[in-house]
Amino acid sequence: MELPITLVRMKSADHLIRPARAAEPEPPPAPEGLRERKKRLTREAIFAAADRLFAARGFENVTVAEIADAANVSVKTLFTYVSAKQELLFRGQPTVLDAVVRAVANRRLGQTPLVAAAQALLAAVDERDGNLSLDGFQAMISSGPAARSLARARWEETETRLAEVLLAEVPAAQACSPAVRAARRLTAAQIMVLVRTVTSEEVADLITKSADSDQTRREALKNWIRDAAGRLARGLQSAPR
To answer: Which of 31, 38, 41, 57 has a 20 to 30 A CA-CA distance from 225?
Structure first.
């Protein structure tokens, strides 16, 4: 029986097929020197201490001396890593803003960016880590004018990160289109409307007055997030007058 020509060619070319060469392993990174390691660990300790104290007591209510003491360094040493206290806010451990960006970037197929962001916020309601929780974030940004000013800068930075994440999902041939870029920026801005509002004083006041325990407060906040995300998805058509 004659074989189809394609199979004949494949059989006759078997001797030409060679096993693929294994990829050469990347060279290991240069070992970290003792001095570099000490500086890295000191920096991490300073930012971690600042994050803990800010989350617990608010930015305005924590002094630089207290941060240095918690990090087991002197104030002079602390200022070799930052030039001002403001640089310590939101610059250490990840916050709920980072969780939102990560959720949008890693969302499952078919899930909208807004829904992914809302789910990250819902998870942050129950988060016990003060750096990643909504409570901790709210405590930091509501502790005074300086903290709120820094928070606004981080909101703008986060919106840009979201727009970049969304644009990276577009085929390269379309990524330069002004219409596509504008649409991704609009989606990022929509997400940040939800983030900024859920951490606002108005929502905090609403939730506090509608709950009589920590558990009911958390459930009320989750319900608000779900409702707000739904209204944003519908274009605020159901917003009351």
So the answer is: 57
